[in-house]
Amino acid sequence: MRNHGVSQFGWKSVTEQQAQAAANEGKLAVVMWKTPARDTGHVAVVRPGSLTDKGAAIGQAGRHNFN
Q1: What's the confidence (pLDDT) of residue 65?
Q2: Quick one: DSSP state of residue 53?
Q3: 3-class DSSP state for residue 10?
Q4: β-bridge mates for residue 45, sequence order
Q5: In sequence order, what DSSP letters do the residues of 19-32 get, joined into one string?
Q6: What is the pLDDT of residues 29-65, one digit of tens each?
Q7: HSE-up of 39 (CA within 13 Å, CB side)?
């Protein structure tokens, strides 16, 4: 995303608060996290909801799922 997303597709980095607000307005927002010790990470879609102490509301499926 850093190398191609901004210049080719118009993606931009925002805060968690801005991403949650965008999702609440019906806009597409995603979060990405890179595992510091490896070259892997995680991508999730921010869904409408509330920002909590755990971060933005996300829609995803994985090994452990919960509401």
Answers
A1: 65
A2: T
A3: coil
A4: 30, 59
A5: HHHHHHTT---EEE
A6: 998 888 888 777 888 999 999 999 988 999 877 676 6
A7: 0
Token pair 């019906």 is found at 26
E strands of the chain, at which residues?
30-34, 41-46, 58-59
The percent of the chain in helix, strand and coil, each rounded to the nearest 5, is 20, 20, 55
Q: Given CA atoms 35, 55, 12, 48 in this order, what sign does their dihedral have?
A: positive
CA 5 to chain CA centroid, nearest Å: 14
- End-to-end CA distance of the chain: give it in Å, rounded: 29
Residue 56 CA to residue 37 CA, distance in Å, equals 23
* Residue 30 phi, psi dihedral angles, 5° rounding: -125, 155
